[in-house]
């Protein structure tokens, strides 16, 4: 590796010891941009460009006290990592999940910088959340937690400063409670301060579908560039949240057969094709577990997750895999099983769902990989469209938003493809995404001086 790159990586590892997810994200980006760095090495070294890019502008950590339904006071930890405002206000989701820690927040914030740059829209990168677990909590408990969380967070955000959105554990219900508390404290209606809002109070049509639809738009372009298509392909999808549900929906509309969906307990395998309306009922209406699918379709298989083992979903034979659940869900062993079973493409709907070893193995085997920072950028792109609608006091129709989303995803693929070709990495869209976004961010950083 280039000496300057290696020096920055070594420093980053020393400065962020034990933050494994964050170091994985930094290694993945810096490992791809070597040809760009070598062409500009003296300038980048003189301005400490890489050192500044891997250091968040601000990390905010705070306690979140709240009272449960039994009257017991609970305390959680809240985070907001405001990573980069180079090309716009900080922008990125909030995650409520027991696994949340500073490393995961930093990795997600770092990824968000590059993802947002690829959209071509004026938004910076951030991420936040809490180790609060919404599962099993009443609506009133979730409301009290969200109100306490926002009572601290409000002083660090704003529609021209930092615009949070949803992520794992933060859906329309949580965004509503957060927005209500923000409005109450600020005594002003600032619609653009949060995205993912319900359409009845300033949200955008197609926002719920955007990440999943965007993933399929990118996959369609990637497959077409390699003389392939979704038509007639068997697809395995992990997860059963918005990303998974609407990626499955759009894949089916493009002629594919989706045969799996999952949650943290296990996965459903229906070789006849997933009954998506039933999954929506279970997950979006009843907030139930995916296992309940068998009550209606007893011939479908339920494969339980075992602690410490890879998900069984990746052992199912298919043409295309769409990991849409969480980070590092596809290990090297799972990647080998996918290749053994004849996979031709992997589309990352979740953030960094493949381990580094898994990604490298898939690329070595000439499997097409749609990297998350490009392929799942449709959600944040549509959030930016929501922000613009809030600023204009105007609503686009569903079809108008979807058309804008489709155009953005096509342009993201073109940027990744062109960058990969320019730097002799044809077909490597992981490298293409990193190079295309890094060049834009580097130019912005150089233009704004040493700040």
Structure in words:
This protein is of the alpha/beta class. It is built from 18 helices and twelve strands. It has a seven-stranded mixed beta sheet, with helices on both faces. Strands 1-2-4-3-5 form a five-stranded mixed beta sheet, sandwiched between helices. Strand 10, helix 13 (332-340) and strand 11 form a beta-alpha-beta unit. Helix 7 crosses helix 8 (172-186). The protein is globular and about 65 Å long. The relative contact order is 0.12. The mean pLDDT is 97.
Would you summarize the structure shown here?
This protein has 451 residues and is of the alpha/beta class.
Draw up the topology in text.
Elements: H1 3-15, H2 20-30, H3 34-39, H4 41-46, H5 49-53, E1 58-67, E2 73-84, E3 90-96, H6 102-119, E4 125-130, H7 139-153, E5 162-165, H8 172-186, H9 207-225, E6 234-238, H10 242-253, E7 257-263, E8 266-269, H11 276-285, H12 293-296, E9 301-304, E10 320-323, H13 332-340, E11 345-347, H14 356-364, E12 368-370, H15 372-375, H16 378-392, H17 398-422, H18 429-447
Parallel strand pairs: 3-4, 3-5, 6-7, 6-10, 10-11, 11-12
Antiparallel strand pairs: 1-2, 2-4, 7-8, 8-9
Helix pairs in contact: 1-2, 2-6, 6-18, 7-8, 9-10, 9-16, 9-17, 13-14, 16-17, 17-18
